[in-house]
Amino acid sequence: MKTTTLTLLATVAALSLTVQALASDGKTIQVKCNNSPIATMLGMPRDQLNRGLRRARPGDTLLISGTCEESVTITQGPLTLKGDVNGAISGARFEPETSEFNGLITVDGARGVVISGLTVHDSPTEGVLAINGATVTIRDSVIADNQTGVRLSQSSMSVADSEFRDHTGHGIMAITGSTLVLGGTVDIHGNLGAGLFLEGNSMAELRGAQVHTDHNSLGVIIALHSTLAVLELDSSVGSTLTARHNAAIGIQLGQGVLMVSGEGRPVASTLIDSSNNGGPGLLALAGSQVLSPFGTARFVMNGNPVGMILMSGASTEIRGGLEIQNNFGPGLVAHGSGVVMLRSVPDPDHPVPSDEPSPSSIMNNGGPPVVADFGSRLDIRDVELVGPVICDPTVISASPVCM
């Protein structure tokens, strides 16, 4: 049943998350923005991008050179906004309306919109906003110095080989049933909110991506029935998510799921590294789940105040590849958690195809390897634990790890 469910989830997600620009033989419209004092003195128009947009038809490409100091709203696609060497869109003159959703680039219900090779910066609201069923691709672009880098609401987006940095809010934010596919190298850093924020039944998938949510206030938030997943696809093998050197928590879940699926895929072929943060490497609350049932993930949580904290019914199923070391306090804290199931690979109770072993360990931390209380449920077997495991009398343990 579990395998069937995961396979079905992978199939449905693969169909629903793929965002593709529609093929066309459209024309290229040159957009040359010039905001120099001389251009202004000569009365040259300062809305070249919107002029080009009004001329565009589905399938066209707006080839942008210079910095366009204007906002645009796209309501019809497919359409490509492509930067030509130094192409940029700036919010320096953008005065947003009082509505909360009002991006420098707003894609409102349009499908097949591509943002390629552009720098989008200095918006007092969102750099890129996708709403009302929009489908957008961002690739080879820099989204910087906005309030929020990208926000999706009831929309889908594919992101590859791009940078999201130095926002006063979140780097990428997907809410209200949105889907996000990440590929290539995606750097999300220097943000005063979270690097990646998922909320309200949204889903993000790493498809062979190298995603770095480092040096933010908080690395990743997965909240309110949202999921961050590596699914059972050949293209997903080798995915990496890092949440390192953040000021607070590396990865935080609240009614969320962090899942690495992939039955039959190489063991420990996906890396989740949440290390050297100012708060816990991973904090899971309110029935959240951290799942790697087939041993395809390697979780690393080193150098934090605490490696992992599971509270309020949060649970794990991690087979192999767990490394919690050199944290200043305990390795793992379970406070009122659900089932904490930890194994190494090979696991005699649940064989996983493997070319080589993938051990799990919690060791060399400043406190006990495991501290459990308030009715937590432990099922920890064949994991290297260095130091005494501390359990209060309310803890239910299916293995003899408690003192």
Outline the structure in words.
This protein has about 400 residues and is mainly β. It has one domain (about 1-15, about 100-395). Helices cover about 5% and strands about 40% of the residues. It contains 3 helices and 39 strands. The strands form 2 sheets. The chain has a 26-stranded parallel β-sheet that branches. Strands 4-7-10-13-15-17-20-23-26-29-32-35-38 form a 13-stranded parallel β-sheet.
Envelope shape: elongated
Classify the helix fraction into a percent range: under 10%
Strand content is 35-45%
- From the alpha-carbon coordinates, what is the Rg to the nearest angstrom? 23 Å
| Chain oligomer state | single chain
Number of strands: 39
What is the residue-averaged pLDDT? 90
Total number of distinct structural domains? 1
Question: Which residues form runs of ≥5 with pLDDT under 50?
Answer: 1-24
Protein structure class: mainly beta
Described by strand count, sense and barrel closure, the largest sheet is:
26 strands, parallel
Q: In whole angstroms, how far apart are the ends? A: 35 Å
- The total of helices stands at 3
